[in-house]
Write a structure and sequence with these properties.
Layout (H helix, E strand, L loop, with lengths): L1 H10 L7 H29 L10 E4 L9 H11 L10 E4 L9 E4 L8 H4 L6 E4 L5 E4 L9 H5 L8 E3 L4 E3 L21 H5 L5 E4 L57
Antiparallel strand pairs: 1-8, 2-3, 4-5, 6-7
Length: 263
Amino acid sequence: MAENEKEAKRKDPEKKVSRREFVLGGGTVIAGSALLAAVSPAAAAVDDPKTYPPSTMYLVYDSKHCAGCLGCMLACSLVHEGSTSLSLSRIQVHRAVLEKYPLDIQQNVCRQCPEPLCVRNCPVGAAHVSAEHGNIRMIDSQKCIGCQNCIKSCPFIPHRPVWNPVTKKASKCDMCVNTPYYNKAGGPGGTQACVEACPAHALKVVAEMPSQTDIGGYDQNLQPPPQPRPAGFGPGGRPPQTPPPAAAAPTQTPPPAAAAPTH
């Protein structure tokens, strides 16, 4: 039966395709297209030779000493946007109420990634590496078209680029390079509002790239080393005893000389 059908098709090439054949053939095409779509991005990533110069600035934090006051978030939004808004802050601090110290307060900072997917996937170059400002990964708000590719590309949760629902644009930490509401210069060699506003000194900008294996590389001990205690102080100790001053030797007054007898 099958051979007869093949022979008939060979003799009549203009014969219409049956519904069953159309469905089977269409399924094959769809499956092949899906496979290519799944493989193509990976292949493109492997073939893409583009590399990015490392940033010269990284924001690190000390989770054990963060007080969770959110002062860094308020300062960040204030100097960038001109108003205090936790949702527009480019640094995010969250309270994990079900966790215990030191995991009850979690800091999320832009990592200035060595291979920034936000930069790679921006179609207009708004997200870029600024050679002028020490290779900081930043977003040019004038070029941003609001496609949110940078937000979707960020591999971290919460995503480090933030969305402004009013301006319909994305932004991210720029180490305070563009801070129109700040009276100090940021960027390399400048001041960062979040660092300055932190009362616990739990934020710091460093030049060396932290470890990229996990979030632990950005969580560092930023407290000054303990000062040595005076001798004698400490558990079970007593303050040093100062010996009393030596008693002065008593002075003896010689008896008065006897008066000479008178005749």
